[in-house]
From TrEMBL:
Taxonomic lineage: Bacteria, Bacillati, Bacillota, Bacilli, Lactobacillales
Domain Cation-transporting P-type ATPase N-terminal, residue spans: 14-87
Topology versus the membrane: Multi-pass membrane protein
Protein name as annotated: Cation-translocating P-type ATPase
Subcellular location: Cell membrane
Subcellular location, principal: membrane
Pfam families the UniProt entry points to: Cation_ATPase, Cation_ATPase_C, Cation_ATPase_N, E1-E2_ATPase
Amino acid sequence: MSELSEKKQQQTEPFYAKSAEETLTALHSQAEGLSDQEAAARLEQYGPNELEAGKKTTILQKFLEQFKDLMIIVLLVAAIISAVVSHEAVDAAIILAVVIINAIMGVVQESKAEQAIEALREMSTPNANILRSGHSKSVSSHELVPGDIVLLEAGDVVPADMRLLEISSLKIEEAALTGESVPVEKDLTVLEGTDIGIGDRVNMAYSNSNVTYGRGKGVVVNTGMNTEVGKIAGMLANADETETPLKRNLNQLGKFLTIAIIIIAVVMFFVGTLINNQSWVDMLLTSISLAVAAIPEGLPAIVTIILALGTQVMAKRNAMIRKLPAVETLGATDIICSDKTGTLTLNQMTVEKLYFDGTQFAADEEIAKDNLAIKLMNYANDTKFSKEGDLIGDPTETALVQFGLDKGFDVRQEGKAEPRVADLPFDSDRKLMSTIHQLADGTFLVAVKGAPDVLINRSTKIYQGGKEISLDETQKTAILENNKNMAQQALRVLGVAYKIMPTLPDERTSEVIENQLVFTGLIGMIDPERSEAAEAVRVAKEAGIRPIMITGDHRDTAEAIAGRLGIIKPGDDDAVLTGAELNNLSEAEFANKVTQYSVYARVSPEHKVRIVKAWQNAGKVVAMTGDGVNDAPALKQADIGVGMGITGTEVSKGASDMVLADDNFATIVVAVEEGRKVFSNIQKAIQYLMAANLGEVLTLFIATILAWDTLLPIHLLWINLVTDTFPAIALGMEPAEKNLMAHKPRGKKSNFFSGGVLSSIIYQGILEAATVLFVYWSAIQWPAHTADNMIGLSAAQLYDLQHGDALTMAFATLGLMQLFHAFNVKSVHQSLFKVGFFKNKAFNYAILLSFVMMMIIIVVPGLNDIFRVTHLDTYQWGIVLGSSFAIIPVVEIVKAIQRAMGKE
């Protein structure tokens, strides 16, 4: 713990379980506030009310981080060996250039990856209204200390964690911290217990939450890093960086290549020195050159380019990638842990049911605009309209006004004829609010909305059939049954009632105004699920991905929404776990039961991290979506964090690997498909490169044993530059294969060689080597140039000509065969005729460009001298083209056999 952290340790006792007097005593404070001298002393003791800055990584540090991967280290070693031992400066320069370009691309993409804590720091409100020695004053929120008395009003941002001392209809919106979409009605009641979730601590106000209604006064209990937001910042700072599947796979590939290269070099050295009796110095250099040739030096850059191309595709589909490896990680996702509010739902309270005149209506049914219930819900309402026409106020009340507007009832116009002349504001004790309107005949309409059970007890009549009738037990039972029915659907239910008063009473109290009412109807509201979310959940399940809902909302609400989305079966209570119940499970117990639960309700940030870790410990790749401050630690802990671009806080975006620009849960399923495509395309590029390099290594290895001089270093360098790079990059732009989302996630244990890729590399590499060696041998055995048609040439000159032709044919065959083979790797198992030869335009251009570059150095005079190749006649080109193309039908036959054996 840092010195600053030690200095700022504050009380951690549950103040929600203490009375106001006990809290003030524990904090050595009083209702009039601290004196300026005491506040200054405490500021020195606890430090400013701000979050500690996280560790900042310099550009140089980020650049050096790029060189920690084993694959990069292998390449650097190869470059050093090429330059120092083999004296191949060109090879070394190319390898170094590739590595440096790859590192630069990584730094550029990740330069903004660590801004979460900075965003938290920027969220702090600049000023706070406080009491000091009984006098009100405004101070910087950074100067607040435990024991300060803070005054709150609608529109304020709560500047620190506080125990409330006084309230007047106070409501605070805590969605960013708790995930609960509805503002919390605050209460001064002392709570019992020491394990109450943040969302249920109704006598507390927390830093960075927003006051939406009423007024209040509270005493600061914690500041800075000791606030709930500060604890989240600490969790972010201490969260371990998870290793992505891509990084694991590249490290595995690096280890595999290292071992293979060492074996190749050793075998080559002993074969040359012991069997062919060659100089050990020459064989050492040959072995090292061969080992360096086995390195696919362009692979890291090609992988980076394919990932970058994937980010561009995702950006067009509203998925913004902040870290390159996240593209591929998405494709491996087993679990999507999603926040409910604003992610699976709209984060917008909406009227869904209306009970009126003995009938329950759905919100989308035809309802007349002069419906009395609609009028009352709009009149008993404090919603305001902005100049632009936007609704401003409590989300529940704005939902009622929006419902009226949808049905043609504009409270602005209707209220002109029946103006509001008085009101009784909402009070959490009586659970009602009323407004009084003067009617055209001089009487007064009292519009009341509030808790249904309270309204029933205060009503003597019911509006039914267009008239007022006596409210009897039968009608009460019907109202209560409809109330229960809506509540079981996780709807928030309000009742509306009214009465007509001949005159405006002098005493406007609840006892006078809110009695002898005429009960009119019930309104059921909910933060509804996104229209496309259910389909996204279905597609995810078909892809073998399990959606998990994690929310700070109540159990019933979470269960209902999850049932409607298809995350669980409706009414499957056993699949739901609350944060309090999770606290009672040990790590071992939870590990055994984690697969049982698909919905978590009333959870804290610590719970979310624990859930993500439990699935990770079970060997799953976990994606976590969220938009609030409370989601940030889990977003950072997850294998891939997915933030919301519109409603998401800067904190959640900063902790994420990917941000959804449209806040649409369905977009993540699209991104998963793209991630799977990216992994598949990287596999194709690796299969292509490794098969080509294996073919080259085997060709040189066998030729060395046979004392053949088949390929020169410059030939290998040109082939690796021309035929490896462009087609491999173009393979990264291949469209997704059909039924890509019908397969289960590949899991953490899979790698680039899984799914038949390794066996394909081996047999295809052997096939390439065998073909090249056969072409070289046949060109020597049946040369186009003989003593009969080359009269006048010496034997040595004739041999040089014959060998030059054989060397050129081997070089051309290897290069062109790799281009033809690029068509084979469009799919590991599917037929090329099914995948399509020319669907990928970028691939077609890449093959054409590579072909032209291969041909130029053979047919253009001057260049063929530099590359020590000869002009070939029609017969020789026929051999080259026929042998090169042969790899396509051979691989097609192997694929057909594999499909027949069920290896797909």
